[in-house]
Amino acid sequence: MIRLTWRQFRGQAIGATVVLAALAVVVASTGVRLLHFYDTNVVTCHATGDCRGVTTVFLGFDHVVQAALGPILLVLPAVAGIFWGAPLVARELETGTYRLAWTQSETRDHWLAVRLTVTGLTAITATGLVSLMVTWWFSPLDHYNLNRFTPAVFGERGITPIGYAAFAFVLGVTAGVLIRRTVPAMAVTLVGYTAARLAATYWIRPHLFTPVRVVASAAYGASINQADWVLSSTVVTAAGRVLPHGGELEFDGTSAGVSIPGAGRCPNIPAGSANGQVGPGAYNACIQHFGLRQITVYQPISRYWPFQGAETAIFLAAALALAGFCFWWVRHRLA
Q: Do residues 280 and 209 touch, judged by C-beta distance below 8 A?
């Protein structure tokens, strides 16, 4: 059974290997130049304090490669689910060839297990290798941009794409087992995987760990790392009322003077002041006069890898649950 499954899948596996090899060549050749430019120019310019033009060149380095590598890990797990997972069983059920295997002393569990293992491990391994290459290539840019927690970047780095690929693949198999038609199963896989990714990104991920809450004077703000993931930042009065627009000054240049909406007129700033005449000292004095506080809720960058591990574990657990359902359905419900 393993040999038969491999013969059916070897064309796709060889094609994936060729693509991975070509991608590795591009990533290695351009990535070395990017790292060299970062070490010899960006790091040096920050040490001397003169980065005019250097950062522009650095951020636009190999723009075509950047634009191509970024979306790969957004679509690769979906491709694995749509084109490898959905047809895996659906095609056999659609054409009726599964009956031949089951009449050759082949149990349903073994038939499904071999197919899931051979194709699924290939999809997961390929996605893991691509993630490794993309993470390495973007490492100097991520170190400079401090944006590893942003939704798009988080899902394109580290180990989370492995969980995505496993889930998308088994989701496709499940859709094929239930629907028994290849094309509808592919469509359901795309919709289901997209919905799962959106739910994980915007509803589940922010609550995986209890965020840190910092209260500080609004005159100076919270002292956090630029790479931290800020979930919310609000300015409140001493009574706890949230101010609009983050407590920014409102300049009207009339006899009414300068005020902070929701708090009141600044007594230390004379009437008729213009924006350019109000320095940070006067602004901070006005904030302290009203006792305004800034409440910042965030996830520290030190939790980046725990977040990666937790989200990967969730998708792997979902994949295992779907695989278990597939075995149950094939054993007991599939006629």
A: no
Question: Does 206 share its domain with 216?
Answer: no
Asked if residue 323 and residue 287 are part of one domain, the reply reads no
* Residue 171 sits in the same domain as residue 221: no
Residue % of the chain over a pLDDT of 70: 85
Q: Which residues, including other chains, have CB under 8 Å from residue 182's CB and lie 6 or more apart?
A: 86, 87, 90, 91, 94, 176
258 and 308 inside one domain: no
pLDDT band at 248 (very low <50, low <70, confident <90, very high): low
**Residues 43, 150 contacting (CB under 8 angstroms):** no
Whether 288 shows a pLDDT value over 90: the answer reads: no
Helix (H, G, I), strand (E, B) or coil at 27: helix
Q: What is the pTM of this model?
A: 0.87
Beta strands in the chain (DSSP E): 212-217, 229-236, 250-251, 258-260, 264-265, 293-299
| 125 burial via Cβ count (<10 Å: 0-12, 13-18, 19+) | middle
Sheet bearing 264-265, strands edge to edge: 250-251, 258-260, 264-265
Q: How far are the Cα atoms of 149, 150, 226, 292, 313 from residue 230, in angstroms, in the given order?
A: 9, 10, 9, 19, 24
Name residue, tokens 């993470």: 135
Q: Give the residue numbers spanning the domain of 255.
A: 212-299
Distance (Å, rounded) from C-alpha 219 to C-alpha 214?
A: 14
Asked if 77 and 224 sit in the same domain, the reply is no
Residue 46 CB contacts under 8 Å (≥ 6 apart), including other chains? none
pLDDT confidence band for 255 (50 / 70 / 90): low
Q: How many domains does the chain have?
A: 2
Pairwise CA distance, residues 238 & 224, whole Å: 22
d(CA 37, CA 58) in angstroms, rounded, equals 7
Residues 50 and 120 placed together within one structural domain of the fold: yes
Q: Tell me: pLDDT of 10 over 90.
A: no
Q: Do the beta carbons of residue 186 and residue 86 sit within 8 Å?
A: yes
294 in the same domain as 217:
yes
